[in-house]
Amino acid sequence: MRNLFESYAESPKFIRKTLWKIWHNFLVFRDRDFEIKYMNYGYADIDGNLEPIELEKEDEPERYCLNLYHQDIEGNDIEGKKLLEVGCGRGGGASYISRYFHPKSYIGLDLSKKAIKFCNANYDVPGLTFIRGSADDLPFEDSSFDNVINVESSRCYVDMDGFLSEVHRILKPNGHLLFSDMRTEDGNELLKEQFKNAHLKIIKEKNILPNVLKALQLDNERRKSLILKKAPKFLHKSVNEFSGLIGTERYRLFEDGIMHYYHYTLQKVD
User: Fold this and answer.
1) What are the pLDDT digits (tens) for 63-96?
2) By three-state DSSP, how is residue 268 classified?
3) pTM as predicted
4) What is the DSSP string of 184-232?
5) How many Å separate Cα 146 from the centre of its chain?
6) Measured between alpha carbons, how far is 223 from 245 in angstroms, rounded to an integer?
7) Strand 260-268 and strand 200-207: pairing?
8) What domains appear along the chain, each with residue ranges and CATH number?
């Protein structure tokens, strides 16, 4: 029988949400030296769509994970804007965008109390703050943000419609949702209906699966090394699956085209 992490992709949303919380809390305990800042699958710029950026030495090893955020905001002028990231996880993407693209302010929000505590303890970037909150009950006033960022988080949400409704509420007029996550083809059709029902107009849609798959291939050894270092041996198989290493079920779902990975830029409309 497959364990919970191995069957993660096919699990009900409430199970996926619980597993994410367990994994975040486990990392807070094990990653005392702050080596794991990103938990996304990454993006390899195989089609030359990203404007090259020179990374600081400390950021270079995680370029593929950073690229996933980079492609999410590509083509959007966020300098001097107010940004919210829903599902910020361990805060690496929030730190990257704040340091390299200079928004006026950036709030990272996550449901995990320990993840937020971790972020507040490890990042000191001007204009960047982290708070705890739920994706379907955002603790902000109407029309508060120019852009909302959501990277590889929404698949865990129990109430996706509630999340999108909240995004529409807190975005300023003509504000944007910058969204990237995995879905099956059928799941993507449902997602587009949910966007429409939430009055979020699709400005850009792209299946970035080839880029994500290539990133997993190129970043496989680094990920494997971190797992060997951070996870106890009895959890290696489960964490390998969770991380999408080559040979896992999650990797096979991507490789076989059963699971896709989509980016959307969406605009608030009345």
Assistant:
1) 999 999 999 999 999 999 999 999 998 899 999 9
2) strand
3) 0.89
4) -HHHHHHHHHHHHHTTEEEEEEEE-HHHHHHHHHHTHHHHHHHHHHHS-
5) 19
6) 8
7) antiparallel
8) 8-268 (3.40.50.150)
